[in-house]
Design brief:
275 residues, binds adenosine monophosphate, DNA polymerase, domain 1, TIM Barrel, binds zinc ion, single chain, 10 helices, binds fe (iii) ion
Length: 275
Amino acid sequence: MTGKVDLHTHTYYSDGALSPRELVTRAHEVGITVLSITDHDNIDGTDEAMEAAKDFGIEVIPGVELSSTLGTKDIHILGYMFDPGNYQLRHTLEFLRKERFIRAERIVRKLNSMDLPLDFDIVLEHAGHGAVGRPHIAAAMLDEGLTSDYAEAFDQYIGDSGPAFEPKYKISPEDAVEIIANAGGISIVAHPGWYVSEQDLSYLIRAGIDGIEVVHPAHDSARQRYYRGIASTYFLLESGGSDFHGGKRNDYQNFGTYTVKSDIVLAMKRRLFIQ
Ligand code: AMP
Ligand code: ZN
Ligand code: FE
Ligand code: FE
């Protein structure tokens, strides 16, 4: 393992633009040798990624990004190195995707009642294979000319305090940690710099989180140092990656730029007694 390590990416199995094979191919092009795909509430890209990775000698680490709720906040929990065939995990992810579907229908109905003629089928086309979410609704609104830009769709309609907002089915951070642990994996709090307060972080540590995402485009070097310090104080694992989505996000410059050292992967494996 001498190349770059990126443990946070998305494919079209959630709100990313690329297929797992396309993502793995691009990973190879930018010098990544260890990659984890962390689709939101979905692990269906794992097999295809692992198959494609053989062509490039890339190691694919099973990953997922679960959305949990703490108070009114959305806390993203990354899971790694679980058994992708675990029944409880698969069952839970399927349930969460069904709930997301029903919730997206509700949001579209609210938009329709506000005289925005958005067709739910168009939203589903944007979601493709993925768990349908607000990013797909925003993209569909943009394509249909119902908003002049992506961010405005959130600001005016579907953001957390917008008139067309509908909450997601709630799982707690403890639930997320438990689901991942029962499937044999480790859980990492994603991009804490976004909205996780110091108090939330200590709550998550008490809830049994295994590590903190230190490297992320939302963290400058001072933030990285801060989280690295917390990880070392509490004997937590460190993680990181680009959170690359591709497509309209236009974050291609992040892929291959936000990477971590391979020691991090070894530390994760050691914690799980994987050779
Ligand atoms: P969902 O899981 O369907 O609630 O969608 C959450 C996702 O929507 C987040 O991960 C962000 O990518 C995106 N999002 C949420 N709020 C905003 C916002 N105000 N502006 C842009 N994107 C947002
Ligand atoms: Zn995403
Ligand atoms: Fe996230
Ligand atoms: Fe992500």
